[in-house]
Amino acid sequence: MQWIDYEAPTSIDEAVEAFKRLGSNARALAGGTDLLVQMRAGRRDNKVVVDVKKVPELNAISWDPTKGLTLGAAVPCYKIAEHADVREHYAGLIDVVEMIGGTPIQGRASVGGNLCNAAPSADSIPALIAYAAICHIVGPGGVRHVPVEEFCTAPGKNVLAENEFLVSLHLPPPGPNSGARYIRFIPRNEMDIAVVGAGVSVTLENGNFQSARVALASVAPTPLYVAAAGDAVAGKPVNEETIAAAAEAAKEAASPISDMRAPAEYRKQLCAVLTRRAIEDAVERARG
Questions:
Q1: CA distance 255 to 216
Q2: Are residues 60 and 140 located together in one domain of the fold?
Q3: Which of 48, 161, 188, 252 could form a disulfide with 26 if both were Cys (CB 3.0 to 4.6 A apart)?
């Protein structure tokens, strides 16, 4: 591993100044569970690591019943899992933070870092898409907000400009009779990368689906928001036929590759299976 310099700003203004001064030499460190491994392997050659964990806004969780959840980009998974309001209102997010790595990884890894790493197989991103999260981005040019489904642009790439960094994620408050679920298929029970993952949120009304959001992992160059799956159930009865239509829409939207973990056709079939199961579980959660 090459020699690197280290900076640890303690405010957003200090962080903005650091990234502006350092330019392409710098890389934000939220948890480091991806970044340090990549630097050691020579996949990244940044000369400076900017540790953003000391910036209060990046390490904070706040919940308001009318505004929703604001999740700092550097909040580690274990803090999210222990937060009572997150456990009560965002069960689909709890699904994710309790499955990323093992206990030591969860002590460092953050949902914001997982998002910025922009891996197609990232577990947190489909759940964030299901919850319609908004990314709060800061840089020398000011502040901008990006829907999470637009954040990843290619494997390992995202919308952040050279001097920008992710400050937080905002998840709107779930409405009445709503539920969410994230599930994945892996070839073994130990820590592994998802062959396919499915994140779903649903809102029910008078026995029908009022709305739904479906997103998939590991089946496209970026985590995939499947708007057609939500359209397939909106306004329709909660039954097997409706859920099957959403599952088929997810399968059709997927464009997976074949690799050592699974062939493409197997992955496409899993999209339908996992979407169906995730919707069924989300419906049960919506019903209490």
A1: 11
A2: yes
A3: 48
Rounded-to-integer distance, Cα 6 and Cα 51, Å: 7
The CATH number assigned to the domain holding 76 equals 3.30.465.10
Number of domains in the chain: 3
Name the pLDDT band for 36 (thresholds 50, 70, 90).
low
SS (H, E, C) 223-267: CEECHHHHHHHCCCECCHHHHHHHHHHHHHHCCCCCCCCCCHHHH
Q: Which of 141, 171, 201 is the last residue of a domain?
A: 171
Domain range enclosing 210: 178-286
Tell me if residue 156 falls in helix, strand or coil.
coil
Nearest to 17 by CA among 25, 9, 5: 9
pLDDT one-digit tens code per residue, 39-53:
666 666 667 788 888
Its pTM stands at 0.93
Q: How many CA atoms lie within 13 A of 153 on its CB side?
A: 6
CA dist 156 and 116 (Å) reads 8
